[in-house]
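Troubleshooting entry. The earlier prediction with iron/sulfur cluster gave an output that would not parse, so I re-checked the input for stray whitespace and re-submitted. Clean input:
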Amino acid sequence: MKLGLFNSKKKKHISETPGYIDSDPAKCVQCGICSYNCPIGIDVRAHVWDREPMINTQCITCGKCITLCPRGVLQFVATDGLSKDTLWNT
Ligand code: SF4
Ligand code: SF4
């Protein structure tokens, strides 16, 4: 029987775009829609509450939290000179 405790084939999360998600905490109403819909299970709401950008997380920069936030709190910050702001904030 395999317990899978040392499974080296763990699924890796690859970022779709180089960058991270930042926020404007002053606009956040802590509704939790972002956290509920994150496919990776990142507690985006908690990051906003703590005023921490989502750096060094498992975030794949899919942009779902950005598009679903009803308050426009979240934004993509590109680290390669490109920007997906217009794509996700429309
Ligand atoms: S969806 Fe937007 S307003 Fe709601 S908790 Fe997340 S960042 Fe805040
Ligand atoms: S961009 Fe995607 S993976 Fe990253 S925190 Fe938002 S919903 Fe989760």
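This one parsed fine. Residues 21, 38-40, 42, 44, 54, 59-65 surround iron/sulfur cluster (ligand 2) (CB under 6 Å).
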